# Entry
Amino acid sequence: MGLLDYFRSSRPKGSANVAKERLQILVAHDRTQRGRPSYLPKLQQEILEVIRKYVEVDMNAVSVKYEQEDSHEVLELNIVLPDTAEGRI
Amino acid sequence: MQGWATDHPILEAATLARIIVITSGKGGVGKTTTSAALAMGLAQRGHRTVVIDFDVGLRNLDLIMGCERRVVYDFVNVINQEANLNQALIRDKRCDNLYVLPASQTRDKDALTKEGVGRVLEELAHGYDFIVCDSPAGIEHGATMAMYYADDAIVVTNPEVSSVRDSDRMLGILSSKSRRAESNEEPIREFLLLTRYDPARVEKGEMLSVDDVQEILSLTLIGVIPESKSVLTASNSGVPVVLDRESDAGKAYADTVARYLGDEVPHRFLQVEKKGFLKRFFRG
# Structure
């Protein structure tokens, strides 16, 4: 590789690459949202309310994952409980 | 590209029209230009074609088709049974196989009812080979009505982030909110039409390439229309750009029509045209 080539290839090749990367992430994210049932946000909210009756957790402590596989759907709930005893009511 | 061409119902026995929606989500990407070009192209190839403007309140297809002064009744009049189809359809003066059904300029988009649109399309389906539905921008009522009954969708996309994203959004709607999706029929065939493509800017890395857009949307590519001055010239004079056989855009649209009908046509205008000194000197 010549010196000239080195400079050429190391320089970012315009903004199209940035556009492509951003779009790939965005489209992948949009697509995961698409197949989801519309009740998910409300479900998440209500689960959180129930948990907060017993444990002090913040809004981001519950994550709801919804995945669609060939024959079935998987609803995955992940709840992060506080590790100190003080968090308990 | 070949798989779908062979089982094309129209090419076997002319029964019911194939309904094609020209859609995009984003505005200003070339839906109406494409609708006019595709409809004219299909008609010129001998297929009885009607092109319908679904942009109620902001009609423009009549202008692009050059028949704006011949509009008497419109799509909404037909839906409301204030006029029959024969009164509202405008026969193109350049091609006997082509008819235009203009949108209403004064009504509200809600005038398009699912039943009403279905009834009009049903009636047209018996007399035509192709029904081209020019969708309004957005994902509101007019756009969903334009795609609801479609058999095929041409998703018009510019090599630009917001257009690509909106196209992807539109694909989601096509696969969930159409008649075919609701009745569990074979899904709408979706095609990508890339418009306003500038190979010089792609080469410099300033613009998403055909491959980039295809990789993101993973759709069958039906055509690439290069950025061209002839598109504005054509709309200025109310002539579908496909009739301008001298222009790149006109040729690219003619290729697109051929591909839609099942011909195998290589994509053109994807590379920067290498101009010799003399050509550069004389043609600018």
Residues 23-80 of chain A form a domain with the Cell Cycle; Chain A fold (CATH 3.30.1070.10).
